[in-house]
Amino acid sequence: MNLHGVRRRKWATCGRSCLSAGGAEVQCGWLKDKYGLSWQIVPSVLIDLLRDPDSVKSQRVMQAMFKMKRIDIAALKKAYEQE
Q: For the chain, which has fewer Cβ within 10 Å, the N-terminal or C-terminal residue?
C-alpha cells in the first residue's frame, strides 16, 4: 500500500505509529507492519522532485533514495541541487 503526497508532519506520524506498533523499516521508505503488510509513505516533496522535467536531477534523487531506509528529505534536496 502506498501513501502518496503525505505532508511531512503526517508522514512522520504515520511512520512512528507503524514502527511503535511492532513494524519495521525497510528500504526506500517502505515499512512493514506487525501483520506483515508493507506500506510506503511517500512525502509530497519526493513526488515533486521525481517529476522534474530535468531527468538528470530526478535520477540523482532516485539514486539517493535507493540508499535510504527512512527517506531523508534534506538529502534528497541536496542530490537534486547538485551541479
A: C
